[in-house]
User: Fold this.
Amino acid sequence: MKILLPWYRYPPFDKTSVGGLSVAIWDLCNSIQDSKFSLEILCPQLDGPEEVIDSAGTVVLKNAVGTKLLHNRKLEGRDLEFLKGYDWIFSVNNFGARSISGIKEKVVRQIHTVAHDRPVSSYASLDGGFLEYLRMTIQRQREMSQESTLSGTRTICVSKYNLSKMIDRKLELETNLEHIPNGIDTLLFRPTGKEKKYDIIFIGRFQKLKGLDILLRAVSILQPKDKRPKLAIVGNFTDRQKEFCKRLVPSECRESLAFVGTIPHEQVPDLINGSKILVAPSRYESFSLPTLEAQACGIPVVATPVGGIPELLDQNTGILMKSIEDAKELAQAIDHALNDNSLQEKALKFGPARAKYCNLPTMSQRLKDFLSSVEAH
Assistant:
């Protein structure tokens, strides 16, 4: 079975990404390949060879069809003939919706976030102003239109939360929906007994939905005079963004902030294992890959009760807060997680087993079983 996954850039995936969509899709592309299934990635046409074989063996194509899908242009006869060479067109978050809407019978889409459900603020950066919110409003409207354009398509949702929102918003028939979580490499993400360098680790972007500002306020609340918990902030932050974040905490707390930057994905488990707890203070979250990765490494997670997070986290592996936007409650939860030896022991015992439910081979097989079943019908 041949599957084509259109993507918006070349190279398709940033291998220094931490968490998030790019990592999940990259792992999926490499894990699905076997004697019966092959997945190729289609990118916009650029200079250089039109076909590249990635080091992991995935074929990456660059041609005019990829450019048309990027810009949602109409496909012509030759374009459609090219797509007919594949059993499925795998559209991530409705990518290329207008271009492929005429061949829905060949389309399977994977939903990582539901635009009809997301507030505009979740698209904006922490210091976003009026113009940025205006741009994000337009982007959200575009994504909502794409969701509606591909209505009537076989649809995979990475969380039960997303699936329920697709039904609630009447974006898809329940019979077309399937829940298959993101998968993680549990051979890579596992407990290692590494010495703890950081008290808290945050993995995310300089984006309002990730809630870093709430975490920084919480850290300010629980700063004791004799010992300040050290916070590792993992992600791509500019110097200006770092300064913005530092201004959210008192000057005496700033030395405890460590901006780690982006690192190769294979090194993320060492960073997680070198931290006592992971905090996910999100205002909106469809899945939360870092929450799953931290559990796989056996460290407690403190998280807000939004989106798909409650599906991943329980009392044995962390603390699920009662509210969002509450820095005081978050500070109390962090303090508890850092000082509760029994929670740390339970996270080490139960976290890896819980994460193994979403191990990459199992999730890839579920996807292949789903594609085989819909083809049979």
Observations:
- The chain has a mean pLDDT of 91.
- Residues 130-149 form the longest helix (20 residues).
- The chain has two domains: 2-183+360-376, 198-356.
